[in-house]
């Protein structure tokens, strides 16, 4: 009879179907709505601390049950129940040209607290050296968690502390519409040439919308002399073809989140048989089109780069052809409802998280149901 594996012999396991299709799509929405340039060329990342910093803390909620399931699986397989803390949670995407050579996940002195990595689950040490082949097209999105036995590296405690400072000192406790706030412009500037980033790069927020058919319009009072960092914070409108959508957005990140939400949920908005009301959509004038062209040069220095890196591998032609501003307008309202729901869950959960110094799924307080 074969001897049972010891913990030291249990090096890796692949856990299948641990995420539903809906969960995968929601994580993709969050990443495409919030990501910044990553730690390696052609890599983009979304961390939970960054979500908090950009006033998008509510997006932590979809991660919570997934983190719980993954942690339980790791502890079960490696026989270390109640020993682990989550050291890091993040969405990392690898675009065309991205790769990383053979390595283990604790390959630096400051990473030795990492003991286990995500699905596939494996020990983070030299027994599991691995690599990522160069991505040739599309975007390879991974949900990465690292687990540690060292409680001083507990991600939960750090996140709860930051969340408490931002949310619990507010004068009102009624869930408000949380509008995102962009980080510094360099965090959104992507360039394949790190030596001369300004000459060849593009703003990833603009690029992700542009490949879906949208342009950005700032009012005539917004000077093209403004640099990218200033423009990121300015109110704007979306244009598509010759149309200008009437509703302003607080900033570029607000517009990006609504656009990505619309394309995530597009099938749920039935195609309207009627033209959008004239008050909802304006026809772009020549001066407005010129404004769009002039400001575009601020956001992109290499249009082909944006197309190559961010254009979806599979284009939904039917969705593109059936686009209507009426449906998009409905999506704006649906996005607001979605954000309020997540924010309500966050406000409900945070007191419990503070008490236990751990992030976990909490039942919704009935007193918040009607708010």
From TrEMBL:
Native organism: Citrus sinensis
In its UniProt entry, what is this protein called?
A: Procollagen-proline 3-dioxygenase
* Superkingdom assignment: Eukaryota
